[in-house]
Amino acid sequence: MNPSVAFFKLIRWPNLVFIALTQILFYYCILPFVYKGMHATGLPVNSFYLLVTASVCIAAAGYIINDYFDLNIDLINKPSKLIIERHIKRRCAIFFHILLSGVGFVISCYVGYKLRNIYIPFLNLLAIASLWFYSTTFKKKLLIGNVLISLLTAWVILVITVAEFGLTHNSDAGSFIIPRLLKVSFLYAGFAFTISLIREVIKDMEDLQGDVKYGCETMPIVWGIPVSKVFAGVWLVVLTGGVAVLQFYVLQLGWWLSAIYCVLLIIIPLLWILQQLYRAQNAADFSRLSSAVKIVMLTGIISMIFFRIYL
Description:
Layout: H1 3-10, H2 13-34, H3 45-69, H4 71-77, H5 90-115, H6 119-136, H7 144-168, H8 174-206, H9 208-213, H10 219-222, H11 225-252, H12 256-277, H13 283-302, H14 305-309
Helix pairs in contact: 2-3, 3-5, 3-6, 5-6, 6-7, 7-8, 8-11, 8-13, 11-12, 12-13
């Protein structure tokens, strides 16, 4: 395999595109809705794209260090997808991890300085440390790793919120902008957290064989597959119910197109995943469900465009 191709596979480039897309949609669709009718300015576009770059670099570094420490487990669970040692040396992988983490942190510090916002570099540094400890320790522990990754998924959205909050909380329009900003931010961050948690548990069921051999204590190992299915199923019900209830408020605004989109591309797929979850028996079944959950995550994030359409 070409080294460049191997590198982009290692950093999961489609996931990085998804991260960038999420933040771009939030910036260009959600923030205009938040600032609607207000004579106020938000996050400058150059600072925004620097934040996107920092997020992508930190996430890429996280994928590298995860594969670095998962080498032996991946030899069992995903031998055909192995990159480190087969195409990229371990010492090169750790170098790229340090480089990308460093670039992400330096950019975060610069943006924090420009915006006078200490929370951005501090919380992004916390994200870098969390990804390291997730890969070395927490991934192998019951539920802790799942929750941590889900929080970091939500942080992809909340980092923009933190930047905006720092710019507007002392402004005259802050009392109107901030409640609106927080409502929409936590709506999507909550969606991202919940669906990521569901996917993480499904992935643990998929990777059961390798995790058992190397002494991991993930949910399927400690509680068993049936209990793990119930756990994921409960959160699927909660997420589906939450999205369904939200549509009643959306319809009161006359957002019919948005409601139809959510029913067809979020609610119905979630119900299908719930049905298939209890029929899943082997790694291939759980792999398909994991991919399906990822698609719903994408359709959920794309729904941000309706805030722009109905602006």
